Amino acid sequence: MSITVEIEDDGAVDYEWAINQDANILERLKYLPARNELYNSLWTKRKTICSLIRHQLGLDHRDICNVASPREWIQGSFNVCIPVEVQSNHLHQKYILRCCLPHKLAETSYPGTMDEKLRCEVGAYAWMQESCPDIRVPYLFGFGFSDDTHFTHEEYRPWYFRLARTVQRCLCALLRFPVPSRYTTNPMTHCLPTAYMLLEHIGPDTGQMLSITWDKRRSEPQYRERLFRGLARVILSLARIPQPRIGSLRFNNNCSVTLTNRPLTHQMVMLENEGIPRTMRTTDTYPSAELYVTDMLTFCNNCLLSNPNAVFDDEDCREKMAVKTLLRALSHRFIRRETRNGPFILQLTDLHASNVFVDDEWNLVCLVDLEWICALPSEMLAVPCWLTGHGVDELEGELLEEFEEMRLEFMRFFDEEEQELVSRHSLSLANIMDETWTSKGVWFWHCIKSLHAMTSLARAHICPQFSTRLTSVAEILSKFWCVDSHRMVEKKVADLQRYEEDLRHCFDRDNAN
């Protein structure tokens, strides 16, 4: 029997599985103990959770509040959702307490990242409530940060408080000051070991996750049309209001929401959590696509430099170095001159079938998980690759032909929906998406978005544009990635050998214990 260890999300895994993963498994081995510690702390504080929820909802301390047992908690990549049931004389309702997982949010390496992530998520909720009321999202009742500052929707504050806030918003708008959102500070003595959000529970009476019926219905054209139109309306509604810079929305301590955070994506946080040095400061936003691409490619370089598991061998190392050099050299070909300085548009960077709720007919009824919405160049908008059930790095040959059929179908509905929408910019997003596909710029932008898929995408889609193969140019191009590139190759191969030894030691040690 092979030696196995427990790892968060993947359960019991053996050494052969671990050694074949792109991720730094040595870092991931730390997650399960940290998660168990957090779960124990939250369960121990379940009375505090009840008191906090009563305070957020303005309920009496005698009202009944039941926290579901940890067996019923729902864990995602960065949060754990705790179902809570509340009963009072006028209320019997389920809520979701969505708690951040500090051990997944680079909190150890970069304290404050957990609050940064929550500020961006809350900022997206607050902004969409005002600017995109047509997009159904879970109601956000309140939230709190790690410094024990708490905020509540003004609907749950006294009437005189709501009146004062209405006057304040009108005055701020008149004087062109930042207009406060509908969330207000709400001091309380209850504190949790992590940042949190109190959300509406989306149950079967509203809809179900698209992923539940995905395999069953995705081959039926009438279901696809309803889904594609719903997705198109969401994408277009978010993009309707132009943004002046590349970045993320941020909820500030003065209760305003501004586009003043770095463009925060799930991939960036995952890599920073594995020890990759940070490239962007939290306050970095970008006035042009070139500056953003430059910093993203620098972050890619940091991934190669810092991840001990970044390469398989010397040939793989040279290919990765060559691709990073190539993308930097070719970036000017794929950045549209007409829109390189904006306008930029808000985009869902982590849209997938489990974030979308649909009814029985596949009408889109709710969108959840708004934590990774960013204002990005319009060229980065693309038809979701998962619509054919495959990853972006799998789209070659017959799978690419299958995706092209699905893309054309999606774009037909997208174009029709765009004709019906009134935007505050003159961009035709359908035309830009078609242009990016035709020019093959879509693959460049997928490289920027999907760092793990960068080499395979360059090999399959970018190099062939120039009638060459990656293996033919890797030796030469890799020399331009850094001075003494041959020493870098030797170093990365040595890093891999040490990593494999350390990983083997971890498996042997766990087995001995």
From TrEMBL:
PANTHER family: AMINOGLYCOSIDE PHOSPHOTRANSFERASE DOMAIN-CONTAINING PROTEIN, AMINOGLYCOSIDE PHOSPHOTRANSFERASE-RELATED-RELATED
Protein name per UniProt: Aminoglycoside phosphotransferase domain-containing protein
Species: Fusarium kuroshium
Taxonomic placement: Eukaryota, Fungi, Dikarya, Ascomycota, Pezizomycotina
